Amino acid sequence: MIARAGAAVIVLLVTAGAARAADPAPPGLTNTRFDEDYRYLLDPGARTGAFWEPFKAIPVTPDGFVSLSTGLEARLRFEGVRNSGWGQDNPRNDAYGLWRALPYADLRVGPGFRVFGQLILADAVGKLDPLAPPDADRIDLMQGFADLNVPLGDAQGTLRVGRQMLAYGSERLISIRYGANVPRSFDAVTGIVRAGPWRVDAFLGRPVRVAPKLFDDERDGQRAAWALYATRPLDLGWGGSAGLDAYYIGYRNQNATFDAGAGREQRHTLGTRFFGKADGWDWNWEAMGQFGSFGSGSIRAWSLATDTGYRMSDLPLQPRLGLKANIASGDTNPRDGTLETFNPLFPRAKYFGELTPVGPYNLMNLHPSVDLVLSDEFSLNASAIAYWRESLDDGVYDLTGGLLRSAAGSRSRYIGTQGELVLSYSNGRAFEGLVSYSLFRPGPFIKDTGPAKTTHFVGMEAVFKF
Q1: Full DSSP string of 448-466
Q2: Alpha-carbon gap, residue 353 to 249, rounded angstroms
Q3: Please, are residues 435 and 456 in contact by the beta-carbon 8 Å criterion?
Q4: Beta strands 338-339 and 297-311: pairing type?
Q5: Residue 4 per-residue DSSP state
Q6: How far apart are CA 197 and CA 199, in angstroms?
Q7: With CB atoms 3.0 to 4.6 Å apart as the test, which of 79, 91, 123, 261 could cross-link to 128 if both were Cys?
Q8: Distance, CA of 344 to CA of 340 (rounded, Å)
């Protein structure tokens, strides 16, 4: 009997230890916040005493069937720029602070329904006029939507209606614009189906037009987007992990402007992305084709984007050597009725780095880099970028699609060279920061078409989340 009792105690201890080891880990902090599920904390035994846990999974009903999670992101950022736009912008030199706060509340009712709301409070301090729309939004609704989850046989479906952040794949085409002071959101209807290894999203919506005053943001009546996006993991067979995306994105802009002219743009994008990690290697390769109409003519454009790296984990500082190579088509003849300028639609901010003076329109670039792990908290990235025009008959654009320099003034292909250093810091879940320095030295095309001073840029930021 004593032996049996001792064995039973051992079994209970082992079982308890296994149960504790199997306790859910806290979800990773995301930029959109709505994918974080803290309902495991409804079990008091799952709490560890972390400072943020009392704000999560607060029971609204005694049984926890209705629960509320709250959280906040606060960011402080300093930027200084000299010779903005290579000396053509007004103001040319500036130094200023940016701040934003993104509080949210997530109300969940059982497994089938939830309401998510998030405000934004953001402004610029000391920045010379004019302010850009992503700089300030003194208080407004960043996100506000309802989810309805329903079983679909062996699959699971979600219907999401309201103001929401949308981000897909590498965020080359649909992005939340997280690096800007005011992120991007859409007034949209989204359907999500998870079936086996597949996740398929479909959405229809309009981007939200940012305005600086109180609760004055509204949907953009000039632009609309709709999409079907499918993704799944892949079994490589030799270890590692990989995934495959395939998508269609539709886009309409009632008043689009390119070097070839202005008109109504209706564009369709078909694309695929292959990404993964294995044996120290990582890769993210994407191919996109576009067709549609522009004014009375047609659209035929394309882009290829690659990011390949290898991390030498056995060496001191664990260096990762990387190479990004991108090409986005430009218009070869502005008078032939076919627009060949690739449009990245709603691209991520900081597209090529902390300094992104040009956007992925009519562009070729090579971007070698090295990442060093200095400690558990600090990492250092050094990179250089060379930019060329893909077509000599098309100009150079900024990240929003605004024409910076027309092709009419030069037959040179080379745009310029960029260098950048970024020191990053991360401490646990709650805090991260960075310090960066970038410069852009103009090439022959910029020198031929206007002011051509070297641009210098400094950035510093601190982000707190819970």
Answers
A1: HHS--PPEEEEEEEEEEE-
A2: 25
A3: no
A4: parallel
A5: H
A6: 7
A7: 91
A8: 13
Distance (Å, rounded) from C-alpha 287 to C-alpha 89? 34
Report the C-alpha gap between 76 and 316 in whole angstroms.
Answer: 33
Element (H, E) at 380: strand 378-388
Q: Residue 17 CA to chain centroid, in angstroms?
A: 39
Say how far residue 281 (Cα) sits from the centre of its chain. 22
| Amino acid residing at 259 | D
Confidence of residue 23 (pLDDT cuts 50, 70, 90): low
**CB-side neighbour CA atoms (13 Å) of 67:** 20
* Alpha carbon distance 298, 341 (integer Å): 11
- Name the nearest CA neighbour of 309 among 294, 321, 324: 321
Q: Are 147 and 158 in contact (CB under 8 A)?
A: yes
Cβ partners under 8 Å of residue 262, min gap 6: 255, 256, 295
pLDDT in tens, 425-444: 998 889 999 999 999 999 99
Contacts for 250 with CB less than 8 Å, ≥ 6 apart: 225, 226, 227, 266, 267, 268, 269
286-324 pLDDT per residue, tens: 999 999 999 999 999 999 999 999 999 999 999 999 999
> Two tokens at 313?
């984990």
With DSSP H G I counted as helix, E B as strand and the rest as coil, what are the percentages for the chain, rounded to 5? 10, 55, 35
Note whether 144 and 34 are within 8 A (CB): no
CA distance 284 to 127: 37
Q: How far apart are the first and last CA of the chain?
A: 51
Please give the sequence-ordered ranges of beta strands (E in DSSP) within 153-279, or none if there are none.
155-164, 186-195, 198-209, 218-219, 223-234, 241-258, 261-278
Residue 174 gets which letter from DSSP? B
User: What counts of helices (H) and strands (E) characterise the chain?
Assistant: 2, 23
Q: Are strands 403-405 and 338-339 parallel, antiparallel or unpaired?
A: unpaired
Neighbours of 138 (CB within 10 A): 14
Could you tell me if 381 and 422 are in contact, meaning their C-beta atoms sit under 8 angstroms apart? yes
Burial of 106 by CB count in 10 Å (0-12 exposed, 13-18 middle, 19+ buried)? buried
Residue among 183, 68, 50 nearest 122 (CA):
183
